Amino acid sequence: MARTLIKLPATARRGEVIEIRTLISHPMETGYRPGADGQVLPRNIIRRFTCRYNGETVFSAELFPAIAANPNLIFHTLATESGKLTFTWEGDNNFSQTESAEITVTG
Amino acid sequence: MLAKTGPSLKRRRLLAGGAALGATILVRPAAAAPDELAAAVQAWTGGIKPTPGRVKFDIASLVDNGNAVPVTVSVDSAMTAADHVAAIAIFNERNPQRDVARFTLGARAGRARVSTRIRLATSQKLTAVAKMSDGSYWSDTVDVVVTLAACIEGES
Fold it and tell me: Cβ B109–A68 below 8 Å, yes or no?
């Protein structure tokens, strides 16, 4: 399991735009770099990121080798209702990890 | 006299030819790269040439370290159900691959702004393209100078 860091407000007013910051520890090996033995290291990247708000996809990203190691994504969403946000990272070598965060929406 | 000008002319022509050949070899990669960038953008837009404007591509113009360069793409949009940004894509000119990232947004994004960190192999042009819900495409292109390149060093 890779370490993740997810930052979003715990509470928000209905209709407020909230900022979500995510970070996951991952080498994002490009597949273009030689290793210590001179052989090119095989590609190992996160290819897809999805953020779901109570099951509905609100943001997704397709990532390529040009994304720096430990991919960090900052995006926004409208606070519509209280519930759960899930964050899924998927990539090479069957990498898949899902984390979640709760949000309370008032008003 | 005639015997003397003959070979010298030939030599001159040969030299000129060699210089021209050298020039074409030198110029070709530089000329090919922007075409590839435009081709990558149009492959994503489906052949439509994006209009410059509405998109703001925030990146340092002088990059010290190409391994992790913070970028922010923001698009001027009301972000309503009827008029919002559907997707944002970032392309580069001289990394091994033209694609950097593609983001799918929607009316529920609330604000059309995405930030991440990217790798840059060398000094080059970068283009951010936004796809609107009405099917139009907008773009912003920036030039960056990279002093320490990514992708060169092996495992350390």
Answer: no
Q: Looking at domain B30-148, does it have CATH number 2.60.40.2470?
A: yes
For range B109-121, the mean pLDDT: 95
Residue of A nearest to B115 (CA): A74
Residue A99 falls within a domain, yes or no? yes
3-state secondary structure A40-92: ECCCECEEEEEEEECCEEEEEEEECCCECCCCEEEEEEECCCCEEEEEEEEEC
Residue A34 placed within a domain: no
Looking at residue B27, its pLDDT comes to 46
Nearest by CB: B118 against A58, A62, A67: A67
Name which of A17, A64, A74 to mutate to probe chain B: the one with the most chain B Cβ atoms within 10 A of its Cβ.
Answer: A64
**Residue ranges of domains in chain B:** 30-148
Residue B89 CA to its chain's centroid (Å): 12
Task: Please check whether residue A50 lies inside any domain of the structure.
Answer: yes
Give the pLDDT of residue B149.
82
Residue B18: its pLDDT value, please? 58
Contact B55, B129 (CB under 8 A): yes
Q: A17 is in which domain, residue-wise? A: 4-29+39-106
**Per the structure, how many domains does chain A have?**
1
pLDDT single digits (tens) B40-57: 999 999 999 999 999 999
- Say if the Cβ atoms of A65 and B154 lie within 8 Å: no
Inform me whether the pLDDT recorded for A102 exceeds 50: yes
Determine contact: A74 vs chain B, CB below 8 A: yes
Residue of B nearest to A19 (CA): B111
How many whole angstroms separate alpha carbon B71 and alpha carbon A48? 18
- Chain B residues touching residue A69 (CB < 8 angstroms): 67-68
